[in-house]
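User: I'm curious whether this sequence folds into something compact or stays loose and floppy. Could you predict its structure so I can see for myself?
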Amino acid sequence: MVDPTGLRPQALRLRAYAKVNLFLRVLGKRPDGFHDIRTLFQTVSLSDSLGVRLTPGGQPAVKLTCSREDLQGEDNLAWRAADLMLRRTGLAAQIEITLDKAIPSGAGLGGGSSDAAAVIRAVASMLPARPGAQALLEVAAELGSDVPFFLLGGSAIGTGRGTELKPLSDLRPTALAIAQPGVEVSTAWAYRALEEHRAALTPDSDTGKIEGSDLSCNTPSGGPLPGSSDGMVNDFESVVFRRYPLIAALKERLQALGAQPALMSGSGSAVFGVFESYQSARLVARTLRAEGFAAWPAEYVDRAASRVPGTPDFDSARG
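Assistant: Here's the prediction. I'll summarize afterward.
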């Protein structure tokens, strides 16, 4: 139980940043049903906006108001994060969340996971006895594999099921155009499809990007450099592009518009392209919107942007 001494009504507004995967390798299924992966996470400026209000006293309760009515319920990761923080701390309080969504769902950009991490950080900052980094990372991991990364933010190598994190120095500022066709991709489906695809491969198949000879060392220690295609690969592209050719076409369109390189993020459906300047990325996003795609200019966001005063340094307690 949290000692209520010193607990007072508090409110905080903060941003929940999207992420892209600058590379993503799927190594195999684990005994616990998850998959081992190796990825380079990077937060970007496309973001949701959250307001979190804590009122002490009474029965614990969570209320969520979301700009998207279909995301209003208790399945929303932001709601679940607040509920889990109440249960873990034994706090007698009400938490009200207002969530303005800009990050699309089913896009591989981690919007729901980022919202959950933002709620964890906000609530933790309001407690009189603030939980340590490891305790908050455990809460995050219970909610989803990407959530611990969003407590950290910036640039980080993710291994295991994505919860074992190695923070990297901030990559140099880089401009992106992020685009999404009118489809959402189920992450669970993408993993199943990749397993089935790999099971069907024969020894003399053209295994291409999926079956790299050394998946643990397929990229430089710091990850691929922005503006370079070295090491930039996403194992999910092979199966997602086959089922959703519009996503493959979107990647080709970004490349035709000058992206160096372009890559699908996560299990899709969003694709991002690296550009020389934010102005170029903004023009490309405008072009893609005129062609019927959802599209946004963005840039890399450093680790400091995700920090909330009063919360611990997650660099020292990574998984």
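Summary: Residues 205-228 have pLDDT under 50 and may be disordered. The beta strands are 10-29, 35-56, 61-66, 93-100, 155-159, 164-167, 175-180, 262-264, 271-275, 294-299.
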